[in-house]
From TrEMBL:
The lineage of its organism: Bacteria, Bacillati, Actinomycetota, Actinomycetes, Mycobacteriales. This is Uncharacterized protein. It holds the Pfam family MEDS. InterPro entries: MEDS_domain (IPR025847). It comes from the Bacteria.
């Protein structure tokens, strides 16, 4: 089993254990990442999980270009497309610890199945079907970095920047080691470990200094525009 996999997006390769964040402004931009990512996984024989917010799962399956009826991958359980509320609101509210528990259970089921060596998952966040508490959401994103090394997996988190607002970018930089920017996979110098993130939260230090915000925003802008 290789330690890398093709993201399906402009030939980008990710490493097993990667926790990647991408931003989009409309469904077309979202699907330019989401669909190739799933198509490459299905072609490679990977287990593919898609948690989609604001879109009927059947629409995602129908949009896949797999050279065959994509629905057969659902029947064979190689592909799962899940409505966001069914993944994130099982107890009626959004709780980071419960979501992590659900992910661990899903990965354990895949490993027990034995048919798949690699799991690739993509989550879309658009504040449509699920409007999470932001502190819980960021705690989830941070704690995912503890969970990812436990299984051979890659997780891509896609955020609708128009609905979340540009103010979330710095928080996403803190919680994702790698960013998908302009068709490139970029190492993120502003990532903080789960322990550091939790320590700041416990101290009530979730607010970021203006200087740090400005510096991170400039870095992201430069990476997006190609400025130096």
């Amino acid at each position: 089993m290789s330690d890398t996999l093709d993201l399906g997006v402009t030939g980008i390769e990710a490493a097993l254990g990667d926790h990647i964040c991408g931003l989009y402004s409309n469904q077309l931009q979202r699907d330019q990442i989401l669909l190739p990512f799933l198509e490459a996984g299905l072609a490679a024989g990977d287990k593919c999980i898609c948690v989609v917010d604001g879109t009927d799962p059947k629409e995602v399956v129908a949009a896949l270009d797999t050279g065959a009826d994509a629905a057969k991958f659902v029947v064979d359980k190689q592909l799962e497309v899940i409505r966001a509320p069914d993944m994130y609101l099982r107890s009626g509210g959004f709780c980071a610890n419960e979501v992590i528990g659900s992910w661990k259970a899903a990965m354990s089921d895949v490993m027990y199945d034995g048919r798949f060596d690699v799991v690739r998952a993509v989550e879309t966040w658009s504040r449509r079907d699920v409007v999470p508490d932001m502190d819980e959401l960021l705690m989830l994103e941070s704690e995912m970095n503890r969970f990812l090394p436990l299984f051979p997996q890659v997780v891509v988190c896609l955020y609708d920047i128009d609905r979340f607002g540009s103010g979330i970018i710095v928080d996403l930089l803190k919680t994702h080691p790698r960013m998908l920017i302009g068709g490139m996979l970029v190492e993120n110098p502003y990532y903080t470990s789960p322990d550091e993130f939790l320590h700041r939260a416990e101290r009530g230090g979730s607010e970021t200094a203006d200087g740090e915000i400005d510096e991170a925003a400039r870095w992201y802008f430069d990476e997006t525009t190609g400025s130096t």
